[in-house]
Amino acid sequence: MMRPYELVDKVCAYDPRADEALLHRAYRYATRAHGSQKRASGDPYFSHPLEVAGILAALKLDAATIATGLLHDTIEDTGATYEELRVSFGGEVARLVDGVTKLSRLDMSSEETRQAENFRKLLMATADDVRVLLVKLADRLHNMRTLSFLSDGEKRRRIAQETMEIYAPLAGRIGMQEMREELEDLAFRYLNPEARETLTRRLDKTRQTKLMVLKRIEKSLRQKFSERNLSATVTSRAKRPYAIWRKMENRQIALEQLSDLIGFRAIMRSVEDCYSALGIVHTTWKTVPGRFKDYISTPKRNGYRSLHTTVVGPEQQRIELQIRTEDMHEIAEHGIAAHWSYKEGGCHFGGEPLAEPFAWIRRVVGMLEHGDTPQEFLEHTKLEMFSDQVFCFTVKGDLIVLPRGSTPIDFAYAVHTEIGDSCVGAKINGRPRPLRERLGTGDEVEILRSDAQEPSAAWESMAVTGKARSAIRRAVRQKKKASEIRLGRDILWNKFRAAGRRIGDKILERALGVLEKNSLEEIFLQVGRGEMGWEAVLKAVYPRAAEKARRRPVLRDKSAVPILGAASGTAIQFAPDSFPLPGERIVGIQTSGRGLVVYPIDSAALGAFDGEPDRWVDLAWETDASPRRFYPSRIALQLSHEVGSLAMVTALIADYDCNIIALQLLHRDPDCFTLHLDIEVHDLKHLNRLLSALEGLSVVLEARRERR
Ligand code: MN
Q1: Which of 42, 131, 394, 526 is most buried as measured by Cβ atoms within 10 A of its Cβ?
Q2: pLDDT of 26-57, one tens digit each?
Q3: Catalytic residue status for 505
Q4: Per CATH, the architecture of 4-190 is what?
């Protein structure tokens, strides 16, 4: 265990102005407060806060933070109060300890409080002071280092999971790469012990067998640099098992390559030297294409700066090399903590002084609380650490991480495909919001569902995640296919009946062999898509029927047409394309060889007979003809060009108890298409009701009766 003076010496070494007395007081207070408490390891409890303070001192944080590390468990575990701490250590330390305590309470109740909720609160808590977050991370790191002493396996796993999902990424986001890697690796140990074991063995073996190679590579790098008078510290380091594991999961890598296991690093004296070193490496060895990254001229969002390259170096070994300055290295390892700078002029970030180093976190939280969009904030800050992702929550508090720009649709599909498919609306933070609304960090999203809902093609443009987009495309394709199958089936049933032929699934199966199809569905689909004519199917089932059927008049069973006024025995037929319906006035024109041809009274075609009054016969519909018959009629429809619009129309027509006889596509452009539908209705009223219902559909731009 670290002695008190060791800790204080460590702090004073990097911060000569540090308040030594404060540190000593905090040390004594914490030892007394924790008294004889023991850790699961059997160590005195106080070893824990001391180690946490040590981790914070390694990050070169200020004395108040170190004191907070020492005191962080006193309120929670020893009955010390905020007030006591304030009197003994001042408001700053008391507030920091209080902040860490609040976060720790979240840990303890996490059976109910889900991890995601912790994450949000964590972010909220850092509003007061990011040092709370740093202490919390150090606390978690030490707990992870000693996790093996915990006897409850389930609890161990839960803590490891939480570390992997919440704390490690959080450390990464604020640029604390070293902390992140250690947290990940410790968690990996409990989450996937076998994989870690295998990788570690493999790594050790590689290191042993390749040790000489490593040394020779380091030496030749050094040599090349010194030939050009560049002073450089060249090191190699084995990558952490978890980092390798993640790489292996992301893209199938072979572990044989040294470059996948060992990273080389050159620390240079200046930015100029970095680029000179890069030039030497690139002119001496062959570069591996696509691996060069210049994070010096374009730093990462979390402030990371370095040159990355991979070359085929000495002995044909691939070498992954990072070239950076000492300052850049410090930031790469310690991120935000590295900005807690004691250099003159206060805090620096990426070389630029910042008035208030952690203002960004404070503002993120401010946005969450005051309802401004985080996006807006992120566009106006240099530290766009969260800009590529948004963190949202389910009502239960589960964290859903989505790319920036995501909508409730993405959210719904991220939770579950079924939830996405049945999504009808969303509440964001308790208020109903449109599905196209972009989600922001901290949003709590409730997806409203209905089993009657089907994904709409329009959703695809609202979704940004691949998961949502492909699920929508799949659902829309299925829906379109189903409606085409229905339409094909309807067409066949109507056409067969019109031809006076029986139809049924069993009967249609006769056509399978002739048409070389495997299933009726295939036939329906092709007919519905217009890829196969109904005549072909009719002919396949009834080889001799097709010819007859085509000549058959549209009106069936004409002898019984319920029309009054014609001399008995007179043949009656309807004028082509005039589609008279019961409920409207009709006249007949005597036509030699065809009997009485019936026209609606307002038919333009009647003009041709104006000079021949003798041929005109007044007719009327028989009003209570039963059973109710069907009469052909034609409607012209203009539909918006959306997937599924035709299906909506055909479904509505079926709902109105009308039959579809034929469909003809007249015109099609990117926005809409026009078609003629030949249908059967009972009378004019029936048709008019259908037309107004069609007009009511959002996909129908126009619906009208069409006739000569
Ligand atoms: Mn603790």
Answers
A1: 131
A2: 999 999 998 888 888 888 889 999 999 999 99
A3: no
A4: Orthogonal Bundle (1.10)
